[in-house]
Specification:
Elements: H1 19-29, E1 36-41, E2 50-55, E3 60-65, H2 78-88, E4 98-102, E5 112-116, H3 133-152, H4 169-184, H5 190-198, E6 210-212, E7 221-223, E8 230-233, E9 240-242, H6 245-252, H7 278-289, H8 298-321, H9 329-333, H10 336-349
Antiparallel strand pairs: 1-2, 2-3, 3-5, 4-5, 6-9, 7-8
Helix pairs in contact: 3-7, 4-8, 5-10, 8-10
Amino acid sequence: MGEKAISAEGVAEKDRMNEDNLDAWMRENVEGFAGLAAYSKFSDGQSNPTYRVEDQAGQTFVLRRKPFGDLLPSAHQVEREYRAIAALHPVGYPVAKPFALCEDDSVVGSAFYIMDLVDGRVLWDGMLPGMEPAERSSTYKAMIGTLARLHNLDYKEIGLERHGKPGNYFERQVHTWTKLYRMAETETIPEVEKLIEWLPTTVPEQTRTSVIHGDYRLDNMIFQPDRPEVAAVLDWELSTIGDPLADFTYLAQNWVMHGEGGSALADHDLTGTGIPTIEEATELYCELTDRDSIPDMNWYFSYNMFRLTGIIQGIKKRWLDGTASSAEAEERSKRVPELAEASWEFARAAGAPA
């Protein structure tokens, strides 16, 4: 079927795709595609399985698909990801170039899309080890500036007016994540029960509406190989039209989260590192988006941790059902009670009763 045999070395049988179907579909739908030569699966990531695809001419592409098997409704929306980057790429926002979307499950077993493979650096540690203070400062400024640029876009002008629903974003999200949590629930957690009662009654007023990414964090972006500039923001599955404070407070949460080796900064002395304080990060975001200030963030932090509880609970349910896409799913699923407790602590700081 091609000039040479297709290589899928290292791809587990459960993650293999129908290669004949994929080759035929890409030949027809991806301009310049020269026939499937090889593919491999990226090991990181829990949500949508992601593959590196190489054609007979040595060109490389990225394929993102939904997991195989039964899925929770509104989860793993590769269609949403594709439509977001298809709207953002033409206006120069840093995303991978999209090539084509396939919504026909019969091709490889689930919906998928093809995008460009962006060269650059993925940074995992928020302390940015190995960098000089000036480069750390520029990297954080680039991350905050790229987020502000997204929020300053007119979502109607770029064709994303149907990418979300009108009304209060957080009100909808609390309802959605409560529903998704209930569908994936495997045990009763007291803190989750209290959050489900408290969060909907205390939703903040929404004053702005924009495109929001939904999972804007350090390791969801690729930086240019030689400079502190964002080459591409990745993983648009949770993107929608909503309150831009959802993204900013999700990013700001790094400054109050504890841990080592990830993006959490609370356990580190930032003096002299070049990394801005949470106050400096907030001031920069406000300046770039023409805001006077940001409201108290504890409610938002509580919501963010509640949503993360729901996401990890979904991973736990998929692991128990045997459909999780990563070997780390079992370990991550153990964090559900800890995340619920952290969410409730922020709720208490925001005024929730004992």
